[in-house]
Amino acid sequence: MDQPDPDTAHSRWLHRLTILAWIMAAACLGALVGLSIMLTPDRYKPWTPLTLDVPSGPLVETKLAQLRGDFDACLTTLESGTLGFSIAEERDGAGACGWEEAIVIEEASAPFSGPQPVVTRCALAAAFNLWERETLLPAAERHFGEPVTEILHYGTYSCRPVNGREGARLSEHSYANAIDIAGVRLNGGRVVRVQSGWNGEADERAFLRELHEGGCDVFRGVIGPDGDSRHLDHFHFDMGPWDFCR
């Protein structure tokens, strides 16, 4: 009877040991990956829904874009924020104008000036809530040491082409998918307007540029005074299909 080759047996033993080592290493790696996922905040995970009660994180634009096609998910997101709202009745305007899957903002951290009511598409409201919480309110405290008591705006819905140019595509305002912010009123009564403050006093210039930059972090479309002559007195924020910051 032939005796087993010691070299062959040793080789088989090393092979099995190597396989076992790889299995253990893979298990350890899987455990580390799982632990890492568990410890990573949801705002850094692309598959978790956006919530408005924690810092937004680097995936905020992607998560906001997902809300545009999922009204139920968007309402759930809004409920996690600080806006008081109700669901708006659908509106059919002239031609393609009007809105569906929109909400009425009934309460924000600071009241809105006229026009009222403030009706917006849901994802726009979510983006506004983030901008208000993460940019507007802390910027006012940082630059002026006062809270904002009123948000001055020019409305959300207007059935018209872009910049009122005949023959142009419809503005996002035609779908209540944009809001024009003209300025703010502070607790002490001071009013900071885009029109006078963009090139005005140093604190107003810095404050308004921070609002513009913060808007570009959450809204799809942003136009300010440097964008074109039609926006010298307000910031245009929208959640349309085009991504731009001017």
From TrEMBL:
Q: Does this entry carry the keyword Membrane? A: yes
Q: Which UniProt keywords apply?
A: Membrane, Transmembrane, Transmembrane helix
Extensin-like C-terminal domain location is 73-246
Can you tell me where the transmembrane regions are?
20-39
UniProt xrefs under InterPro entries? Extensin-like_C
Q: What's the superkingdom here?
A: Bacteria
**Entry protein name:** Extensin family protein
